[in-house]
């Protein structure tokens, strides 16, 4: 049950950062916090104890950790790192073009 509370705290902190902060860098950090919270929650919910998932004749299926959540989270980490790199590249390019990374000031560039 503690992992549910930790998940909620991390996710709400990330959501607060995305909704309240105006700096694009801080918004990317908030998205990463939310992503890490979901990864933590999926791993924590699916953990049931057991041995590593290498089956031998003496091991039974019920004693082995389910490797599917770990594989999904590894895929998610790779996708998240790529998305973060892309977002940070966009922030750098916006900063080169407009010399600002504040969201409110960027909205004024349309006018």
Overall description:
With 111 residues, the protein is an all-alpha fold. It has four helices and no strands. It has helices at 2-20, 24-46, 67-98, 103-107. The longest helix has 32 residues, at 67-98.
Characteristic key phrases:
single chain, 111 residues, mainly alpha
Give a quick precis of the structure.
With 111 residues, the protein is mainly α. The protein has helices at 2-20, 24-46, 67-98, 103-107.
Please give the share of residues in helix: over 70%
Question: What Rg, in angstroms, do the CA atoms define?
Answer: 20 Å
Low-confidence segments = none
The dominant shape is elongated
- Please give the oligomerization state of what you see: single chain
Strand-helix topology:
Blueprint: H1 2-20, H2 24-46, H3 67-98, H4 103-107
Helix pairs in contact: 1-2, 2-3
């Amino acid at each position: 049950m503690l992992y549910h509370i930790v998940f909620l705290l991390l996710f709400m902190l990330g959501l607060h950062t995305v909704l309240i902060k105006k700096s694009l860098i801080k918004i990317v950090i908030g998205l990463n916090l939310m992503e890490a919270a979901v990864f933590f929650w999926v791993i924590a919910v699916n953990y049931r104890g057991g041995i590593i998932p290498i089956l031998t004749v003496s091991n039974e299926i019920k004693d082995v950790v389910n490797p599917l959540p770990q594989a999904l989270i590894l895929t998610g980490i790779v996708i998240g790192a790529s998305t973060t790199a892309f977002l940070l590249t966009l922030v750098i390019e916006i900063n080169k073009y407009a010399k600002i990374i504040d969201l409110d000031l960027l909205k004024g560039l349309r006018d």
